[in-house]
């Protein structure tokens, strides 16, 4: 009698091979983590840091990460104090914790020493496909920040959004505008449009030309609009409120998402000439490039006129769901 293995091999050619289907993004788990029991508070390593943290409010941030399944993930974070001065926290311990898809509780990642720029770089390992939140806690004062890790299957259907002047009605070109971004007014039906794409199972990417130190308020704005505040990618430029390389920065990142991460980017949104140029540089078709504001329709792009009400009703709501596997609907984060 043939063995079970032999029998399986014998009939393998008769068994249809089902196409792989990406898992839909899990915007529920990472948005609703359990209570974290963090590290025990210990004295700062230096008196200067004790003075710094006593005088200024924390303004920490983490860079969201997105990787293809099977790829080791890393996340960097920066710890500084004061919204204007951004005084770096040097030589102090920061503890990292991870929670997300398929996990029953927080996992301790380790503790890390900030460098001369107040930064740490954390290896998160190779994770199953899913969405994860990484929580960072400063040992000396227990202040913290969070970042998000997305581990995606190749081919996941994705929508990319610019934020300034695309989801908001202002383009934020002055420092005063940047520090007040959490109160920016959205275009009508912008949140409904974004959430409709999310509910259809698309991966959301928020690509901002803002410098990295505005991440905290940028993410807060998304949360205020009841939009899942990730994947959020900002410009690492640190020289001022108006980075000079916007088009290259955005074009390079869209190419990275498509070529290195393997996302299937089906639609991109923007408002500026630099958005049009960046998406074109990255190889996005004009028919999949939607532009709102004064440059709507420029260079053969798809125009969105005035606000998103008509676009939402006629083009987004009837659009097909993403080609992904979902066991449940994806409600708005609480």
From TrEMBL:
It holds the Pfam family LNS2_PITM1-3. CDD domains: HAD_like. Residues 159-301 form the LNS2/PITP domain. Residues 1-22 form the signal peptide. Keywords: Signal. PANTHER family: PHOSPHATIDYLINOSITOL TRANSFER PROTEIN (PTHR10658), VIBRATOR, ISOFORM B (PTHR10658:SF11). This is Haloacid dehalogenase. It comes from Massilia aquatica.
